[in-house]
Design brief:
With 363 residues, the protein is an alpha+beta fold. The protein contains nine helices and 14 strands. It has a ten-stranded antiparallel beta sheet, with helices on both faces. The protein is globular, with a radius of gyration of 21 Å.
Length: 363
């Protein structure tokens, strides 16, 4: 986005823009064909998405069932996150931060990332299970894993308040960028803002100055009223399909009016995990086994950016499966997906309405 367009985006209200493009050609059978493409502009980011409905039928036939377990699913011996290798092969936090060098909460263990991405970079393990199929982790371990991340980020904030750009992420399986199968979260804090931090900080501040309201809270209020993309709630967290997705089957969870991880009560972490599990089970019902998760925040009491978690499914981790990001996304910057967010919301809602819904796929 050009700088002048970026500045305009900071000041604009929430506009849900959509344009339909028609492509006309003669098909292989000699008959005229018309194909429609929706071009949507996201009201928060200003980024465009192209929904190419004609390609929906191309979705991989392999999705009729989950792929076999990935190579290495039973190889605990070479995994540095499995015990007893964990204590020998992973680094430690300085003792003046946390005596013992690691944070332990229930079955979760947190330690520094051996290959950091920023000034403060850590890994938080769920438990000692080496491989966990999508949607089958222990919810209690998931909550403990997030609580470890919160404690670590609180310590960073106390020692270095300038490292206010924080994130908790997950890459499930190599198709989503994961380097190890052993399930874990990454936790990050830095003085230098990532692109999403930088944009959202400016957008949320500009929006608050113009309206006196919070950006994601208003976005959520619109989507709940519209109803087409709203999915459901898990506690205080509200879940919806992204209006202009930047990934396949992209789902957001929003905690309106809450800006800090440190302000979340125990019930809020449990509600977050419940929604994450619902999303995972929905992805599993599609026959997919990989996903990305991201929860970013600005650790500054003056921020107006409410908490939002983003999840999107990835191509299956299996031999010869086509990646879901092509030259269109990488080079042009527009996500090209095949399914309308309204369809995503309709398909996902049963997983919020019935905790036992949906998983009929073979493991």
């Amino acid at each position: 986005m050009a700088p002048e367009m970026l500045l305009q985006a900071f000041d604009r209200p929430l506009l849900f823009e959509m344009e339909t493009v028609t492509s006309r050609f003669i098909g292989p059978d000699g008959q005229p064909v018309q194909q429609q493409i929706e071009v949507r502009t996201h009201p928060v980011s200003g980024r465009r998405c192209r929904i190419t409905f004609a390609r929906k039928a191309e979705e991989p036939a392999a999705d009729a069932s989950l792929p076999p377990r990935p190579p290495g699913a039973h190889d605990r011996d070479s995994c540095p996150f499995c015990r007893p290798a964990l204590n020998r092969q992973t680094p430690q936090i300085p003792d003046d931060w946390f005596p013992g060098g690691r944070l332990i909460k229930g079955t979760s263990v947190l330690f520094p990332n051996l290959f950091p991405y920023g000034r403060y970079s850590a890994v938080s393990l769920f438990d000692d299970r080496h491989f966990v199929e999508i949607g089958t982790a222990d919810p209690g371990a998931y909550v403990d894993c997030f609580l470890n991340c919160r404690q670590y980020l609180a310590a960073v904030s106390d020692r270095d308040p300038a490292a206010k750009y924080v994130a908790i992420t997950q890459n499930h399986l190599p198709s989503a960028g994961g380097s190890l199968l052993h399930p874990h979260l990454q936790v990050h804090a830095d003085r230098i803002a990532g692109n999403h931090h930088r944009y959202l900080e400016m957008r949320a501040t500009s929006y608050y100055k113009a309206t006196g309201r919070y950006l994601f809270a208003d976005y959520l209020a619109h989507e709940k009223a519209a109803g087409q993309r709203y999915i459901g709630a898990t506690g205080a967290w509200k879940w919806l399909a992204a209006y202009a997705p930047e990934g396949f089957y992209e789902i957001w969870g929003i905690l309106p009016g809450i800006v800090s991880f440190q302000d979340l009560a125990a019930a809020d972490w449990q509600g977050l995990v419940s929604g994450i599990f619902n999303t995972q089970r929905f992805y599993r019902s599609l026959g997919r086994n990989g996903y990305n998760l991201g929860l970013i925040a600005i650790a500054d009491p003056r921020t107006r950016l409410d908490l939002r978690v983003v999840m999107l499914v990835r191509s299956n981790y299996a031999p010869w499966v086509r990646n879901d990001h092509t030259g269109y996304e990488i080079m042009l910057g527009d996500m090209a997906t095949f399914t309308a967010p309204e369809e995503t919301a309709t398909a996902a809602r049963p997983f919020w309405q019935d905790p036992g819904a949906g998983d009929t796929r073979d493991a």
